[in-house]
Write the structure tokens for this entry.
Amino acid sequence: MIAVNDLRKTYDTGSITVEALRGLSFNIDKGEFAAIMGASGSGKSTLMNLLGLLDVPSGGTYILNQTEVSALEERDFARIRNKEIGFVFQTFNLLPHLTALHNVELPMMYAGVKPAARREQATLLLERMGLIDRIHHYPNELSGGQNQRVAIARSLANNPAIILADEPTGALDSHTSLEVMDIFQQLNLEGTTIILVTHEENIAQHANRILRLSDGLLIRDDIVPVPMNAALELSSLRKEAVR
Amino acid sequence: MNIRELMVVALASIKSSKLRSFLTTLGIVIGIAAVISVVAIGQGGRAMLMQELEKFGTNLFVVYVNYQEGEISRQSDLQVSDITLIKNVVPEVKYMAPVFYTQMKLRGSQGQKTVELLGTSADLVHVNNLEIAQGRFLNEEDESAGRQVIVIQEDTAKELFGSEKPLGQRVVIGSTSSMVVGVLKKDTSVLNDNSRQSAYITMSLMRNMTGMSYIHQIYGSATSKEAVATAMERSKSILERRHNAPGHYEARSMEQEMQSANKILGIVGLVIGLIAGISLLVGGIGVMNIMLVSVTERTREIGIRMALGARRQDILVQFLFESIVLCLMGGIIGTVLGYGGAYVVAKIAHWPPLVSWWTILIAFLFSAGVGLFFGLYPANQAARLKPIEALRRE
């Protein structure tokens, strides 16, 4: 699904040249749940932007779904971002003047889906996220966890093969973070490839695989033998609360 | 995205900053209102003027002496006998009246009034379409019998005789006195400034009073609109031959007067319209300014939309559409206000405001054009943003 070879990214800010990525190589297969970890400045966000086609690499190759990305044009990038990748951000990145429903409809609007079909799909996704009674609320009327669930619903709008989540629990408390991880684990079980960037070890432990970056290099690539199960953690938390 | 969806997106964004949108639109509102009202007042005024001139009769023409600079007028240049000759010889001439102007103070039983006193003939009532309120106009016998009679206007009658019945009253002019035989209806035409009142006496009476035997102008009316040119030409050539003075006479028709008045009014209207158009330009610059601010403020939104799959052209169209909608709203409000303004002005000036459908169409297209033109640069700035940079912006 994803094949990265000697991927490099340098930022040229006039006087100084920063090497954010210094040659990364790895593959991520369909159906994987991979966490990318690293301290700030390790290059994990840069990698995320390159994988999400929000930025272009300075060197190396990136093959997404058998397509060499450097051969594509900007309009192809837009189509791939729209149909094949779903983004989830740390700060949700919902449009404040649109309701939850309209925010979820947005990627479908750019995909040219008819309004009625859009509305139906958006409603179904929000229902799945447990937000059926919040669909006409604006982001500022929702809690952080609710907003992140709206954002996840939005990322799923066009049935993408890959979800790219950049610190999706960074702005949430531990309980809400677990709820979000629970959703990701369910989606992964249904076959969606998930790539999660995080700096929290206990969040990363929910993935099947952890790639660790440092100074723009891949230093470790581990399989997680027994990933943590967010659903179980949540139910034990609930039991504790009852007790 | 189809037009309806673009509209929804644009309106949502306009609604999200109501005051700013209103203030931005205000520039366009004022610009369009100014242009519409100027055009409406101008067109209305023109139509009114033409209508009034038409009332005088498009068959009307005037013959006068074309004095060269430094030339001294001769008593014999234009005479009553010229009219008799022309009327006999030129079949295209239907009516023809001499005019001799002078200022005179009229005295009546209740007051006095300085008027423009015209020596003329019976034909003038037909040529100038004068409307009789009481009595009659001057006739042939008044002239041939040398009767001391006068025709005055309603306003003059009031000043001279108060509430008394004017017919049969005596009007004293200098050392002579004349009897009022007719009263003319008040002229409501916008062309007539009512401070100037006219009174009419026969040419023979005028000669006796002033000692002058020549006339200033000849008013004529042709048998038809088509005959005006021939009537003018032949009248001129007869005068030239009779007085042996080639090029000494000039004639102008009402048609020509209307054309030149129309041309001048057209130019005046255009100049004022252009000045009003400048305010529209200023309004457009305001829109561009606010759109640029909006693009900067919404950089993050642009980044999010791009991450979700918006193409550059989607972003471009979105911002262009917003700018056009903003301007069109201004255009619509401005058209309504402009028409309202023109209506008020027209009510005061007593002429109908005239807003033709093409004026509204042009205002519409023009405001959309302003939106397009001044929105293009900001929208292009928005579309050229790199998604990652736009997303990083706070």
User: Anything to note?
Assistant: Chain B has a mean pLDDT of 87. Chain B has two domains: 3-53+259-392, 67-247. Chain B is about 60% helix and 15% strand.
